[in-house]
Amino acid sequence: MSIADLPLSRTVGEGGSERSPETGEGAAVRHAPTTGLRRRGPLSRGAGEGLRSVALGMLIPALLLVAWEICAGFAWVRPTLLPPPSAVVKTLLDLARRGELWGHVEITLVRVFFGFAIGAAAGTVCGALAGYSRLWRQLLDPMLQALRAIPSIAWVPLFILWLGIFEAAKVTLIAVGVFFPVYLNLMAGIADVDRRLVEVGRVYRFSSWALVRRILVPATLPAYITGLRGGLGLGWMFVVAAEIMGASKGLGFLLIDGEQTGRPATIIASILLFALLGKLTDMALAQFGRRALAWQDSYGNSTAHARDQRPFPAV
Q: What's the predicted TM-score (pTM) here?
């Protein structure tokens, strides 16, 4: 059967009479696509939605900054306790002009990067073992849950004793903070996979490796990415405690230095830089998550990607 034999090859004209479809230049012009003229492509739609999301996300911080500057201008708050945003910006510009700012930012980013990589890798291995095997879960989970309750600052003297005050102790402390959200989310994600999906894989005689690749990995990916984002957030929190351990450079050192020398503008500048860098790195990880989960028929994807349907990934 050819395309011409299908019922769609004939159309109904005026008066109910059948006629053959148009051919030639007239048909090409009449049925030419008008995507570029009447409809925006998915790229332009995505750019518009991204700009709108950024604008909405900046609205409340901008209003708070304006209110903060007004309160400082009318002396409703003491500048020695809460300097105005203009003073904070001046402090940042002075640090940048002296060449100090980028050195502090760079060393903090390097510490967070290596701590995140080590903690995420360890959390992935332990979470996968505990989620996939009941035996490993019984062996690992009680001990790790007890260690999770230890405050971050309690690790500092022990790591200084073991590793000294150099970079190894700082990176290890950050890795500890990253580890637990990744471990918990991955373990729970694997344990909560729908049992019927696993049974379908066994009916089709999937090997253990194929079962992991084709069912467990796609099913646990949302929880895993959530764990990575949570671990990254804790990594930024733990880096402050890490940089208290004898650091001579970094945003945590800059914050403590501002506190010890009575410079509140430096303290607030350090806090705002932590917030900015944490948000930018989280945005990058969230963008990776959206791309990795673009196939998922979820509520979030139905609103943001309603016209960008993709098939379930073949792992």
A: 0.77
